[in-house]
Amino acid sequence: TGHDRRAHTPPVRGPTVGQSLGSSSSVPSPGPKAPTQPGAPRLNAEQMAAFDLALQGDNLFLTGAAGTGKSVLLRQIIDALRHRRKEVAVLAPTGIAADNVGGTTVHSWAGCGVPK
Question: Which of 7, 20, 30, 31 has the fewest CB atoms lying closer than 10 Å?
Fold first, then answer.
């Protein structure tokens, strides 16, 4: 039709961690903080930088191709925050995505949908 229908990407504010997980650029970690679960997968430098930002209270948007470690990182962040006795709501747009990270759907959490 001749119209550009790509989504507008808002400007990024604050620190960024590469363009996506698995990209070649990274931000140095402000300080080592080991994930809390013994035997948990090791995080690479870029994941560790995002982990540190999350524990500092920064908002994150995780993006990357399949298999780049987004869910692994998210589980580590959730575990660390819960270990610090922080209340964590793990939400996802679909049931499959929610199951993958041990969460629930946004609709279910908000009480929308089929009445009980």
Answer: 7
